[in-house]
Design goal:
- By secondary structure, this protein is of the alpha/beta class.
- Helices cover 35% and strands 14% of the residues.
- It has helices at 4-9, 40-49, 99-115, 127-133, 137-149, 157-161, 187-198, 231-235, 238-241, 259-267, 304-313, 328-331, 336-342, 351-371, and strands spanning 25-28, 31-33, 59-61, 84-88, 120-124, 153-155, 215-219, 250-253, 271-275, 292-298, 317-323.
- The strands form 2 sheets. Strands 2-1-8-7-9-10-11-3 form an 8-stranded mixed sheet, with helices on both faces. Strands 4-5-6 form a 3-stranded parallel sheet.
- Helix 3 links the parallel strand 4 (84-88) and strand 5.
- It is globular and about 65 Å long.
- 39% of the residues are buried.
- Residues 1-40 have low confidence and may be disordered.
Length: 372
Amino acid sequence: MPTLIQEALLDINTSGSDASNQSLSIRSNTTAVNPSQLPLENLLNRRKQCNPGANQPMERVLSFPNYANASSYWNYPSSKDDTEVVCEFDKDRPSAMHFPHAMQQLYGCFSLWQEYPNNRPILLVSGQVEKKLKRNRFLAGIFQLFQSQLEVDVLSKKKYTEGRHDKGEQLKSQRLEISGGYILNQAMQLNHLAANEFQLQNNSTHSCLRNKPRIGILNRRISAGRSIINAELLAITPTIEGRSHNNSVVVEYFEGLDFIEQVSFFRSIDILVAPHGAQLTGVAFMNAPCSHLVELFPKGYAIPDFFGSLAINSGNKYSYVYMSENSLRSEQSASFADRRQARSTNLCPSPSMMASILGELSDSWRTCCEEL
């Protein structure tokens, strides 16, 4: 007889498998937690809130168009005599200080500097704005990476222009015109620089030597909205965990994790399932070209172009699941108020549907690896 804890965890049809043999790796910050140590009341409450049906309607989009090359987003005023390339952080852009939108600009700046590898890279940002950005632990790591590995000079516009006007020199800088998604060139180089700077364990180079992909779920707190309520249950679904390396699916939460911990997680995963959210900003550090992001959206809210563009422009594969009985196209005309309310809805994807999706993607991962 399964215990109450096992019964709460196994809110799926295990097809007669012994519940005591189910394994699950859940990370809280950097510590793995056994499911039997999780509060029973919490697990039972999740079970009451989340009862997915086997035929739960979801729109599955398992392919996505390529995005334009990053260089098409700028017209940098350079000449053969230039010795520097200047990227300006625009604090006045909508939501510029919000972590994912700040990284839109910083990924773009990195791409611009890569276009001119022999020129001195400069980032124009005021000291006050830089200080605010660095309060985010991921952004603090990005600044360290830029300054140490790329030798980027981070200067205020005032300091950079001092003395230049007296010499009759014009300021040549680039504010990137980013409309909705991300632009990123040379993501593999960015990943390599991060590994050098932070001495990251080389857990991605030989990914394809494994017989199965490493599947992970990057979740959000329930209180934050757009949480996969049954993430732990998905992770122990036999038809899902059986597709993953070592028959184990990691469930991760990024609250409180620094740049190194977040990047290390992305580098350790081949197929990532996650709800839409800021935690996906580091998806550029996944193991291209065979890794795959599956992004989940609640009914009434979906913007696949945002993190989809980041995944694809960093060399990864991308698909999304829109959890509605209708297509995304048919519901795009919903009012702003409706979309705002929908964006906080928690998610409860069907284990059978997710098993089907992850089965297809596991096969695609193996085919990709065989073609390398």
